[in-house]
């Protein structure tokens, strides 16, 4: 089985601990932990510490860890399959041995934190934006984790997608707009890696690929609301939204109006 056949999806969990001993067993995935609660003092074998909101920890695959905290603590834990990091490293031009993470505790990185917050927001909302959005965040997170590594020069094209590539990708999006699109599927259509598709699609269209899909879904929903008597809940599903309120949020953000206002205007 090749790496392309393996699951590269992230898992995002909320972890609440009551205070006392905090333990992390070894897992096959890398874990990125973001502290989201109030300040919590603690200690490990080497030193005392004070976790504050936004502090990050990295626990590489196969690593166990344990420490003591003096109060309840809340964290978001993102689990990343090593195959995703490996694939992203290859796309960045890094040798395979660079696709590793060092164990780190209580550090700050605004870009990693931003992606972790976005993943947590998606988790709390019930993952309404589908796999494509989560795939995009996963790739962005992997890139940031590897950002300290020196990528081979000239691995990324400075051009956007070719016209045939762009046509294939956009036609595939239109044909599957009501489905759960994935970054891997779109990259395969373009004949590119996932990270290169993200970069070159934005250069060609001016929008990130997941945002382009949202705009196309909003446009389809608008047309259905204007031209049919289909219930709004069915319009949402036909347009690829997870539910009616998700459609309403996206429509308000993109068009500045609600589905009801669109229908009344028709």
TrEMBL record:
Q: Which SMART domains match?
A: HTH_ARAC (SM00342)
Return the Gene3D superfamilies for the record.
Answer: Homeodomain-like (1.10.10.60)
* UniProt KW Transmembrane keyword: no
Checking SUPFAM superfamilies in the record gives:
Homeodomain-like
Q: Which UniProt keywords apply?
A: DNA-binding, Transcription, Transcription regulation
Q: Which Pfam families match?
A: HTH_18 (PF12833)
Which GO molecular function terms does the record list?
A: DNA-binding transcription factor activity; sequence-specific DNA binding
- The record lists the membrane-crossing segments as none
Q: In what residue span(s) does the HTH araC/xylS-type domain sit?
A: 167-265
Q: Which chain positions lie within coiled-coil regions?
A: none
Q: What is this protein called?
A: AraC family transcriptional regulator
């Amino acid at each position: 089985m090749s790496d392309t056949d393996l699951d590269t999806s992230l898992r995002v969990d909320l972890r609440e601990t009551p205070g006392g001993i905090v333990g992390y067993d070894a897992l096959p995935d890398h874990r990125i932990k973001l502290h989201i609660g109030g300040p919590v003092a603690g200690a490990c074998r080497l030193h005392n510490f004070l976790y504050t909101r936004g502090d990050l920890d990295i626990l590489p695959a196969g690593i166990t860890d344990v420490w003591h905290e003096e109060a309840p603590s809340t964290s978001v834990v993102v689990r990343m399959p090593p195959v995703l990091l490996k694939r992203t490293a290859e796309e960045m031009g890094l040798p395979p041995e660079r696709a590793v993470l060092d164990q780190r505790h209580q550090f700050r990185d605004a870009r990693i934190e931003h992606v972790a917050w976005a993943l947590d927001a998606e988790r709390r909302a019930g993952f309404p934006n589908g796999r494509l959005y989560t795939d995009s965040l996963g790739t962005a997170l992997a890139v940031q984790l590897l950002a300290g590594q020196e990528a081979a020069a000239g691995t990324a094209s400075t051009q956007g997608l070719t016209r045939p590539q762009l046509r294939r990708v956009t036609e595939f999006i239109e044909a599957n707009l009501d489905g759960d699109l994935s970054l891997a599927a779109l990259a395969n259509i373009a004949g590119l890696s996932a990270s290169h598709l993200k970069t070159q699609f934005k250069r060609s269209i001016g929008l990130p690929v997941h945002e382009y899909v949202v705009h196309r879904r909003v446009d389809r929903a608008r047309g259905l609301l204007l031209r049919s008597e289909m219930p709004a809940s069915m319009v949402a599903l036909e347009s690829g939204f997870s539910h009616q309120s998700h459609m309403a949020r996206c429509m308000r953000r993109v068009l500045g109006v609600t589905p009801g206002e669109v229908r009344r205007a028709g």
